[in-house]
Amino acid sequence: MSWRSGSLLVAALAALPTTLAAQNFDTVQVRTVKAGDGVYMLQGAGGNIGVSSGADGVIIVDDQYAPLTDKIKAAIAAFNPGPIRFVLNTHWHSDHTGGNENLGKSGVVIVAHENVRRRMSAEQFITSFAQAVPASPPSALPVVTFTDTVTFYYNGDSITAFHVPPAHTDGDVIVWFRHANVVHMGDTFFNGRYPLVDVASGGASSGLIGAADRVLAMADANTKIIPGHGPLGDRVALQAYRTMLVTVRDRIKQAVAAGRTLAQVQAAKPTAEFDAVWGNGRITPTLFVEILYQDLGRRN
Question: Are 177 and 52 in contact (CB under 8 A)?
Answer without folding.
Answer: yes
